[in-house]
Amino acid sequence: MTDVWLGHRTYKDAIRAEELTIVGDSALTRTVSTWLACTTFSQTAA
């Protein structure tokens, strides 16, 4: 999660690698990158 939040990798990459699991309502889990953005200090957007 830290790598995603810092912009070092995307949510999709972390989930695909089975290093991140997001549990909850499917409408929210599908759109996690829109409501839980990476830090403003990151170089890239996740």
In short:
The chain has 46 residues and is an all-alpha fold. It has helices at 2-5, 11-16, 26-30, 32-35.
What portion of residues is helical?
Answer: 40-55%
Number of individual domains: 1
Helix/strand order: HHHH
Structural class: mainly alpha
In whole angstroms, the N-to-C terminal distance is 11 Å
Shape field:
flat
Radius of gyration: 10 Å
Q: DSSP strand (E) fraction? A: under 5%
Low-confidence stretches: none
Number of helices: 4
Q: Count the strands?
A: 0
The average pLDDT value, as a whole number, equals: 84
Let me know the largest β-sheet: none
Molecular structure report:
The protein has 46 residues and is mostly helical. The protein has one domain (2-35). The protein is 41% helix and 0% strand. The chain is built from 4 helices and no strands. It has helices spanning 2-5, 11-16, 26-30, 32-35. The longest helix is centred in the N-terminal third of the chain and has 6 residues, at 11-16. It is flat, with a radius of gyration of 10 Å. The protein starts with a helix and ends in an 11-residue tail after the last helix. The relative contact order is 0.28. The model has no long low-confidence stretch (mean pLDDT 84).
List the helices and strands and how they pair.
Layout lengths: L1 H4 L5 H6 L9 H5 L1 H4 L11
Describe this protein with a few key phrases:
46 residues; mainly alpha; 4 helices
